[in-house]
Amino acid sequence: MAALPAVVTANETETGTVVYRTPDGRLSPNLSEAWVVEDAERLEAALAELQTQQAIVCDPYAFPVKVEAGVPMPLSTRERIRSQGPTVALPRAS
Amino acid sequence: MYQYDEIDQRLVEERAAQFRGQVARRLAGEITEDEFKPLRLQNGVYMQLHAYMLRIAIPYGFLTSRRLRRLAHIARTYDKGYGHLSTRQNIQFNWIKLVDVPDILDELADVQMHSIQTSGNCIRNTTADAYAGVARDEIEDPRPWCELIRQWSTFHPEFAFLPRKFKIAVTGAPDEDRAAVRFHDIGLRILENAEGQRGFEVIVGGGLGRTPLVGEVIHEFLPQASLISYLEAILRVYNLFGRRDNKFKARIKILVDALGAAEFKRLVDEEWALIKDSAIDVTEEELERIRRYFIPAAYEELPSSDARLASFSLGKDRAFGQWVRNNTRHHKVPGYTIVTIAVKAPGQPPGDLTHEQMDALADLSERYTQGRLVVTHAQNLVLPDVKTEDLPALHAELLPLGLATANAGKLTDIICCPGLDYCTLANATSIPIAEAISARFDDVDYLNDIGDVSLKMSGCINACGHHHIGNIGVLGIDKRGEEFYQLMLGGAPGNDAAIGKILGPAFAKHEIVDAVDRVIQRYLTLRESPDEPFIDALRRVGLEPFKEAAYPDAKKDKRPAASARAASATTVAAPETQGT
Ligand code: SF4
């Protein structure tokens, strides 16, 4: 289980899009809308609930964040890149 | 180019239809992700950091213009407009939606392409010398053998669930190994004996990843007719004795290393005795049938153009001359030249091609090289059959496409895995480092002064970027959430196969490009002459002078503690690598 506070994430099964669980139980592609869970039991419950929605999302997990100006910020580089996209410009026609 | 027969065609179409059903059941919630994962992996579908990734097989790297146009269409229609050439001569799309994969597989089947066995613990796409069929130093075209291996290994029921993935490479050029055969599970070198007979040197147990090993020769001259029975015997021994209890020790290299090459060979020979000279081996007629598909290009009878090529490289147009010098090779047919398109423009991710570039290259290949192209394991493309007289016109057309970078084989021709920008297993980003190095050394005169040197980079120990066998290798590691980079020197993929040695403590992200620069500076000062390549100079003087250059402050003040610690703190990554 991730250190707290944490955010619950998964990928949409149909599209692969990275999504985050929001406080009202939706799945949002924006980390800024994610529910910051402070409590281990609630975190476990949220993960268990997503595990039952396999047609919609796959491989849910939680990762630790810190909250800055009310917005969750991932502690790891991996989750930062996952939430913001590649750090390099995508190839474009010259 | 091999053309599918009815059986091949039906096979890929039925496989696409089968996967359509599996995707439908997954999206309907009838099967779980755990149940679906092995099915999607068998069709080349990975889950990466941001989205699904689809890996498409390009058997032995050979493409036609029609197939490249179809890949451009897939990039445009189903992805974000680009594809990534992998280090095993395949192509990957990074932003695929699962719901679209069945349609993509149908579109691929239509041009005789697929994603079968591009993932999972099976025999993967067989790779070959990128100059196969046209190289002047080749004694035999290895592609018919690669095709035979493809047909033998596709859906081979006995080898569908091996202990781990299995990779085979073949070269027909004995003097220069351009296929890294000593770093594959099986490497095959076509040789000719004093009597003029052809055979294979069989090398087993090479590989990179967390345990890099140079393969061992277990048969010095296998008669060509016995290839399939001998491969079958090797696979059977591996299937039986390869470790299934520990994924990190499951590759054949670990088995060969544990048993010793002599004992492994004894087991193979024992198994081989049961099946050699049986119906497993192909007849000469069948081999001839396959060979007939590899029709040479329709060459015109032309005089030798070697002198012309030399004069081009010294001509007034310096950009063109440098491109000819670095990106062309002598062809076996007089009047023709092999051209490397370096997909390594400064500031671009190594190996990434936009759909516009793919379409344009398909057009150019039809006009200049009879519609044939090759993907190389160095993440470049080769136009194999260009008339030497056409080189100025071809170069002029490549320039506006951003595909005329004159750096093939030079420092900025970097092999680089997707790293943390895409890969879920990565410890560190690799593309930004490659881009920074290519920007730092963006001067062809300087690159030519430095000469031939390979730089290879991986974002984790799985080594999809082949960092162990770069003359200069860079490995991304993670230290408490920070990206660090190990520098290693002395690796070589060819006939002088060697695994690089770590130079010292890892560098922080902002330090690594300077460190590479200092290593290059030291080489320039200590080489005996401009003709002494980096790797020769390194072998002559050893690591120490380069170490001093890379760590100039090591004596004055100790290296920052964080860097030193990071050298021994490689994060353990799961083994299903995604970069190739
Ligand atoms: S698994 Fe392969 S592609 Fe991914 S970071 Fe590691 S070496 Fe690179």
What does this protein structure show overall?
The complex is a heterodimer of chains A (94) and B (580). Chain A has one domain (6-84). In chain A, 21% of the residues lie in helices and 31% in strands. Chain A contains two helices and five strands; from the N terminus they run βββαββα. Chain A has a five-stranded antiparallel β-sheet with strand order 3-2-1-4-5. In chain A, β1 and β2 (18-21) form a beta hairpin. The longest helix of chain A is centred in the middle third of the chain and has 12 residues, at 40-51. By secondary structure, chain B is an alpha+beta fold. Chain B folds into four domains: 6-110, Sulfite Reductase Hemoprotein, domain 2 (Alpha-Beta Complex); 135-292, Sulfite Reductase Hemoprotein, domain 1; 306-401, Sulfite Reductase Hemoprotein, domain 2 (Alpha-Beta Complex), CATH 3.90.480; 415-579, Sulfite Reductase Hemoprotein, domain 1 (2-Layer Sandwich). Chain B has helices spanning 6-27, 33-41, 65-78, 101-110, 143-153, 227-241, 252-259, 261-275, 284-293, 306-313, 318-327, 355-368, 391-398, 431-440, 444-450, 512-526, 534-541, 544-550, 561-567, and strands spanning 45-47, 52-56, 62-64, 82-85, 91-96, 127-128, 168-171, 186-192, 198-204, 216-223, 328-330, 336-341, 352-354, 372-375, 381-387, 415-416, 455-458, 472-479, 482-489, 501-502, 507-508. In chain B, strands 16, 17, 18, 19, 20 and 21 form a six-stranded mixed β-sheet that branches. A five-stranded antiparallel β-sheet of chain B has the order 1-2-5-4-13. In chain B, α1 (6-27) packs antiparallel against α4, α6 packs across α8 (261-275) and α10 (306-313) crosses α11. Chain B is globular, with a radius of gyration of 23 Å. The relative contact order of chain B is 0.10. Iron/sulfur cluster is lined by residues 417-419, 423, 425-426, 458-460, 462-465, 577-579 of chain B. Iron/sulfur cluster (SF4) binds at residues 417-419, 423, 425-426, 458-460, 462-465, 577-579 of chain B.
